[in-house]
């Protein structure tokens, strides 16, 4: 029996898309604050993605990721149409990071919060954020998107579309400071 052209790539593309779907479920749950809504979004998104068996498997992953991000932002906007209308202004009384400062939350701390036993603390903290703060933080910290890409994604739903890379950067620094403060204040309670 002759092997189908691209058959090895097809199964690799499908597996890559499946792995992307699992990762995107975690992302969507953090973005939306609802595992049920996240599951629905990912199932709908994956069902709608056509995978070219001869294409680069990473393309399937990118397509799933792009569509889930857009779907999550659309749901957030539908739930609160004003959520991205205005860019939150920085609190002038609470400077934490300037442009050149290191993050108050290390990548290993963040990874532990995302995947470890502390996941519930992160979700509780996320629930206290505005939709805009949550969207910026999760895209930047979880997906590792750039400030410019995050602004572009949000601007698809913002009216007026006024988000800039600088605005995203500022809001992301604010959320990192908020998270660091939350972790600092929770530490004594955890040690007792």
**% residues in beta strands:** under 5%
Count of individual helical segments: 8
Largest sheet geometry: none
Shape: globular
The CATH architecture of the largest domain comes to Orthogonal Bundle
CATH topology of the largest domain: Arc Repressor Mutant, subunit A
The count of β-strands is 0
Mean pLDDT: 80
The helix/strand class is mainly alpha
Low-confidence stretches: 188-192
Task: Evaluate the radius of gyration.
Answer: 19 Å
Order of helices and strands: HHHHHHHH
CATH class of the largest domain: Mainly Alpha
Count structural domains.
Answer: 2
Helix percentage range = 55-70%
CA(first)-CA(last) distance: 67 Å
How are the secondary structure elements laid out?
Elements: H1 7-32, H2 35-48, H3 57-79, H4 107-115, H5 119-127, H6 131-143, H7 147-155, H8 165-191
Question: Could you characterize the architecture of this molecule?
Answer:
- By secondary structure, the chain is mostly helical.
- It folds into 2 domains: 7-79, no CATH class; 107-191, Orthogonal Bundle (Arc Repressor Mutant, subunit A), CATH 1.10.10.
- 68% of the residues lie in helices and 0% in strands.
- It has helices at 7-32, 35-48, 57-79, 107-115, 119-127, 131-143, 147-155, 165-191.
- The longest helix is centred in the last third of the chain and has 27 residues, at 165-191.
- The N and C termini lie far apart (67 Å).
């Amino acid at each position: 029996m002759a092997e189908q052209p691209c058959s090895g790539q097809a199964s690799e593309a499908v597996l890559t898309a499946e792995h992307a779907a699992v990762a995107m479920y975690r992302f969507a749950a953090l973005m939306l604050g609802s595992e049920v809504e996240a599951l629905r979004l990912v199932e709908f998104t994956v069902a709608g993605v056509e995978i070219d068996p001869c294409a680069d498997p990473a393309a399937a992953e990118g397509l799933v990721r792009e569509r889930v991000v857009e779907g999550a932002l659309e749901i957030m906007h539908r739930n609160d149409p004003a959520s991205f209308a205005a860019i939150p202004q920085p609190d002038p009384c609470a400077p934490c990071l300037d442009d050149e400062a290191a993050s108050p939350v290390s990548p290993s701390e963040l990874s532990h919060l995302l995947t470890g036993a502390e996941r519930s603390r992160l979700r509780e903290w996320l629930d206290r954020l505005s939709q805009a703060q949550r969207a910026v933080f999760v895209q930047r910290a979880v997906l590792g998107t750039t400030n410019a890409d995050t602004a572009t994604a949000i601007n698809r739903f913002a009216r007026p579309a006024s988000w800039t890379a600088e605005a995203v950067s500022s809001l992301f620094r604010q959320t990192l400071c908020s998270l660091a403060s939350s972790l600092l204040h929770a530490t004594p309670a955890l040690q007792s």
